[in-house]
Amino acid sequence: MSDTHAQTVAFVRDTEIPSAPPPYAATGPVKWMRENLFATPANAVLTLLALYAIYLILAPTLPWILNGVWSANSLAECREILQGATGACFAVLTERWPQLLFGFKYPSDLYWRPTLAFVLLFVAVAPVLFFDLPRKLLIFTGLFPFIAYYLIWGGTIFVPILALVGCIGGFAVYQRFVTGSFAAGFFGGIAAALAIWYIGGLLIPAGASNNAMLTPVPSRDLGGFMLNMMLGVTCVSLSIPIGIALALGRQSSMPLIKVVCVVFIEFIRGVPLITLLFVASVMLSYFFPPESSVDLFLRVVIMITMFSAAYIAEVIRGGLAALPKGQYEAADSLGLDYPQAMRLIILPQALKISIPGIVNVAVGLFKDTTLVSVISMFDLVGMIRGPILASTEWNGVYWELLGFAALLFFVVCYGISQYSQWLERRLATDHR
Amino acid sequence: MKKSVILGALTVAGLSAGAAAAGTLDDVKARGKLNCGVTTGLVGFAAPDANGEWKGFDVAVCRAIAAAVLNDPTAVEFVPTTGKTRFTALASGEIDVLARNTTWTFSRDVDLKFTFVGVNYYDGQGFMVPKALGVSSAKDLDGATVCIQTGTTTELNLADFFRANNINYEPVPIETNAEAQQQYLAGACDVYTTDASGLAATRATFEAPGDHVLLPEIISKEPLGPLVRHGDDEWGDVVRWTLNALITAEELGVTSANVNEMAANTGNPEVARLLGTEGTLGEMLGLDAEWSKRAIAAGGNYGEVFAKNIGEETPIGLARGLNAQWTDGGLIYSPPFR
Predict the structure, then answer these.
(1) Does B16 contact A at CB distance below 8 Å?
(2) Domain identity same for B228 and B306
(3) Chain centre distance of CA B238
(4) Would residue B17 count as lying in a domain?
(5) Chains A and B: how many Cβ contacts under 8 Å?
(6) Among A129, A185, A187, A212, which is most buried by a count of CB atoms within 10 Å?
(7) Confidence class of residue A3 from pLDDT cuts 50, 70 and 90?
(8) To the nearest whole angstrom, how far is the Cα of A211 from the nearest Cα of chain B?
């Protein structure tokens, strides 16, 4: 080592200078704001305008919400408590809470039954929505409709059991014959189920419902948000398989099936939902004698299901059309027959493409269930517009009630849309 | 073959529907419940309370009929109907009687084939203005802006009234009563016009009801009453005379409180006939002798029902006006029980 070198070493730092903090304007919230809110003069103006708009909205609403009255027996009492100050009268929500959720006629000591069914609903749909869960849970999903029916409507337990036995019988016949011909299996299965239901219906003793373990509740007594949930869940879950069948039928090479499907879809899509609901509630009662009409809830479910099935069919047809022809030919060249090709190759891809469209229809359908209020069924909106606003205590409370309804619907619809986005990411197999 | 089966089924269905319509009174007795059509909710007239129990002026008619026919004022299945479904519900037999503030008009009576059995409320189109406007008669409303529901008869009545009085107005079209309240309170119109009972109910919900007045002019006739299907006069008689029993009870001073006492010892032969201690009026109707006693005991006489649901003591605060007994200068009048 030379001295020269040793001398120079004295000027070499052997420790790192501690890093200075970045300039104030290039870090933290200031930087974020400069980059995102005030990047250009135009941006700055827009930011200020947006802030002002938010202020304009919040200035009256925040005191209104925070100052809200939560316990009072009538609107007049609310006003007395507020003494002229701004404030919402949320007392209507607390007082009529069970009515908003369950309608005004569902027996109050039986509220636990729909609540339990609602909780079980999550257990039942979980394996359908999330594929990572153990497949054995699907058994519960299959049983859920019957359990939910029994819980909500009550009555004799033979009815849901008979329905279940009919479904199992029909499925067994289908399995037995479908290897020979699809049509034989399909129609044989339906015939077997109908036969079991008919014979079983004769076996159930009359009046079995009267001393059943769960008190029977007629459909007319259902109401509130429960009714929206029931209609939404039932109709969406029924209309997806029917929609798939219609979409496939519309592409069928068999003229009869094709014509039937096209006419059905085009007719239903050409008619407003509210017209179908009026037919369900008004016209059909002309055709049945007064005592033996089909349950109104069932009529409405059939109409809404038909309506959304037609829309879902068109969405899925779009998915089918988006598949390259090579996929169909590949399926044929593997020697797969039609059901196999559809089940293993075509539908998984077509349905994946159709997810946003299907979810769109499902969200729309769920909101459309409020239309039943015009045929005097007391869903959430029907409860608000009818009994609650017409009571002498609460006449005149609009914002609180309708805001609450909007909030409930928003939570459910936003949940559905978040799930569909997750599903799209999960199923994304293409290279982006 | 298939066609004939369908036609046959339709015929059977039609026949059984016809058979069911032939004896509504027997049907109701056999069923043990009266199916009564009401509104889905109208302040004071029909609405379920917090316990889900129906209350109101129209509801009281249903309860009185049930008490008369079935001896139980709670044996009523209330079928809520909208303005659109009410007539089909009645025509199809889903309900036995419609008590849903329905205006008695020619075409409903004749063309739709219903029988209006009477009038339980004489309504009419009125005007509400802010007190600050300083108007005391609708004829002073020259140049006023008027909130009016579109597509209703009130719109036509309004145009007629202003034209007949040779004054001008500016309509502010609105869709629903809720919208009208907001518009009127916001000052978008000087006047709000609809049925007088609706105006009173609306005013009752205001923060300061005293700042608004209902003008004395009533510019249309809206007789509201219960109705039944054409072609079953026995049932129509039961409903008609139940309503008349309530009206006559008020006229004769029979109330829900003193009905038993009056029945036991009355010197008035008309009271005795009404309450079934004399004569066989109940039997003629196909009911027992005490039918009207039960109907009156159920919710009180006409005056009691009125006072309890829509009268001046209630928040709605309707005066009797046209709905006073004929002896007090009103139009409420029942044919004699004889």
Answers:
(1) yes
(2) yes
(3) 16
(4) no
(5) 99
(6) A185
(7) low
(8) 19
